[in-house]
Amino acid sequence: MGSALEKAIELILSADAEMLNILSVTAKMSLQSSVIALLIGVPIGIWLGTCRFPGRGILLVLNRTLMGLPPVVCGLVFYLLFSGVGPFRHLKLLFTVKIMVMAQVVLITPIVVGNMESYVGSIAPAVRETAKGLGLTRLRTFCLLVNECVYQIFSAYLLAFSRSIAEVGAVSMVGGAIAWKTNVMTTAIMQYTNRGNFSLAIALGIILLSVSLLVNIVLSLLQRRLSQ
User: Other C-beta atoms within 10 Å of 3: how many?
Assistant: First the structure.
């Protein structure tokens, strides 16, 4: 164990080529999927948090269900849709980073929506009252609401990013964990552990834990800011 840990630290310090490739693919997938999820989820979350209409309760229940969607189920659906017998097989996206991003967007967008909806629902009445008193239009009211949610939007993004970077089920099924192509930190840790290459697995584990720690520190600071 001690020698494996020493080798892991050496790999990190020497910037091993294979490890850098895994980090690059992980960053590409996580950043793209979290940004797309944010762009989709924030407007929907604000809409659900401010509007009252028939069927809203059903949408909220559906979103909460999707928040708990098992990654392997999401991976299975995408695999069936894009495999050789699926309706989208001609796109040839299976075992690419693109389909990994798509699967991640489905998994993390509901988290952004739920996070924004619960927060906006608590501040929307006060914002609407202020906007009504100032005679603001709907568009300016929406902009005012977004401005009040700036820190919450950053918080929602960090939650989405942390979920994306730590997910393994869906990305392994649709990406295939192909070396130098679709292998990300989580799939690589599982793969190299099964092979007995503990040094690289530990190195990736250290980096993944460090990223998670950094994200949680920033989240704590944002939550403290929101509570003030």
Answer: 9
pLDDT digits (tens, 9 = 90+) for 83-94: 988 999 999 999
- Cβ pair 101, 31 in contact under 8 A: no
Q: Are 164 and 33 in contact (CB under 8 A)?
A: yes
Reported as type and span, the H/E element at residue 26 is helix 17-50
Residue 193: other Cβ atoms inside 10 A: 15
Closest by CA to 208, choosing from 189, 191, 194, 190, is 189
CA triple 20-22-28, angle to 5 deg: 100
Question: What sections of 51-149 are H helices per DSSP?
Answer: 56-67, 71-82, 97-134, 138-148
Q: Which residue has the tokens 């690289």?
A: 200
**Exposure letters 151-170 (e unless 16+ CB within 10 A, then b):** bbbbbbbbbbbbbbbebbbb
pLDDT digits (tens, 9 = 90+) for 151-195: 889 989 999 999 999 999 899 999 999 989 999 999 999 999 988
Task: Tell me the torsion sign for CA atoms 220, 222, 226, 228.
Answer: positive
Alpha-carbon distance of 37 to 16, in angstroms, equals: 31
CA distances from 200 to 181, 193, 208 (A): 17, 9, 12
HSE toward the beta carbon, residue 207, CA cutoff 13 A: 25
CB 111 within 8 A of CB 67: yes
